[in-house]
Structures are given as structure tokens and as C-alpha cells.
Design brief:
12 strands, alpha+beta, xanthine dehydrogenase activity, CO_DH_flav_C, 12 helices, single chain, 319 residues, Xanthine dehydrogenase YagS FAD-binding subunit, five-stranded antiparallel beta sheet, four-stranded antiparallel beta sheet, Enolase-like, domain 1
Length: 319
Amino acid sequence: MRPFELTAPAAVGDALGSSGTFLAGGTTLVDLMKLNVLTPQHVLDINGLPLRGIETGDGLRIGALERMADIAAHPGVYPAISRALLLSASQQLRNMASIGGNLMQRTRCTYFRDVTTPCNRRVPGSGCPAITGANRMHAVLGTSEKCVATHASDVAVALVALDAEVRLRGPHGERAVKLTDFYRTPGDTPEVEHDLHTGELITEVVVPRLDWADRSTYVKVRDRQSYEFALCSAAVAVDVRDGVVADARVAVGGVATVPWRLPAVEAALRGAPATEESFAQAASLAVEGAEPLPENGFKLSLLPRTIVRALLEVTEGSR
């Protein structure tokens, strides 16, 4: 880890416009600094800022500095969000990690985290060795010839499924961005991962009210039971009336370069009977446009099965 300057702004306004790196829980930032993947000269500890609070009245509002463990345990938080948080990391990390920091975490691609190897996200133009190298954990959706790294966050998948937005505050004022628009697929600029401008800060996460979001879940498939990133995951919310799907929300993780919403699957579910057969037919659309690599082609069959499993779990008793 290289030397750096640490300051702690006393007010949100004092933090805005800085070219420094924000420190919240530090569960990602500190790791990457130790590896010299990130070498900020100035780090701003924002834990003293008034960016906390959870409101569950008309929708859901979560302060950016709320810890993952506290959000997961809060009554009124939609099940898909709570479950995604509980299936993330370890209890110790969930006690430290903030929701804002979780949404901003960097990829766990081993090439990105190894400074002795090329990586277009870390050093633009240096190459992507994952394309021809070890790529079992990598993406099949939203990829480019520049990058195939998956997005690491579990809860971002659930939030994308539920139409969440992030509220941002910067030196030029405040704005709100849908989480589906906040993340950027790599294209030709994999180093640009999100729509956060220099000096801007995530202040809160807002999930609009959805009266049937209590019928939601998050299913995570991984190599081991705990403390592991997803090979494939699915966040779903389903409104079933008289055995027919009236509406649905579906997003997936572990298979794409960003949390991946599946509008075609949602459209196929609407008006269909809430049966395993119709779920499978709709879920088959999830792999449209997928580009598997030599070691991760199994995700093309794992992805639809994971969606079906989540749909069956959330509709049990209403079919």
C-alpha cells in the first residue's frame, strides 16, 4: 500500500468536488489499496456524514452509509433485497460494508486484481487476458472484446429488478439516476464503469413502492455455500392472480458485466400461467445475445434454471 492523505469531511458539502477517493466501510477499497490496484493520493473518510436512515413508508429509502447487515434486518425491506444482502460476503463484512460502497464495488476478476497482468479496466488499452485465459467466472452477457468481467454486487441485482435509483449529489447539484442506467457495459471503454461524475457522492438509494414486492426473492448459485461470489443469481418479484402472472420483475447476476435486467423474460411471463413449464419457456429468453467463453458455456443452461428456481420459490402457494 502506498502512502496517502486521509481527511474526514464534517459535512456533505465539504466532500463534494474533491478528486479524492471516498472511504465508507472500506471492505473493497482497502483490499484494492493493499494490492496497489488502487493508489489514491487522497482518501476522504465519509463515515461522519449524515447519510443514514431507512424509510419504508411510500417505497423504500436507504441512506448510502447504512450498513448491509442493518438493512437486511430492517422490517419492511423487500425480501429480494434482504436476501441478496444476507447472501453477500460474511457477517463481519456485512456489519462494515455500506450500501453505497457495495453498489460501487469493483469487479472480482483475478486479472483486474493482479497488477502483474494486463487489464483494460485497470490500464486502458493493455488487453483482456480473461478472454483467452481463465474465464469460468466471467460474463456471457454485456461483454465486449475489451472486457468480460462480471459485476460483483448481489444487492445491485435485486435493486435493478425493483427499479431502484440512486440519488447523487455533487458540486453542480443533485440528480437521480436509475440503477439500470447508472452502470455501463464495457464497450470500448471498460474503465468507465458507472455514471458517477468526479466529486459526486451517492447519498441514498430509492426503491419505488411496489405493492407486490413482498413476493420477491433472490437465488444465488455458487461453488460453496457461503463467502463466495455468484456463478449465477436471479432476483424476481411476481404478482400472481388466479394462477396467472399479472406482472413480473426479473434481473440476474454472475453472468453479465452489469446487473442485468431481463425485460423479454418479464414480458413472456405476463399473462402466462404460473407453472414450471411457462416459467421455463420465459426463462429460455434470458440467454438471447449471450456470448460464452471456453470455460463458462455452462452458464447458458444454468441461467434459465436459476430463474425458474427463483420463480417457483416466490410463487409457491399461489400456483
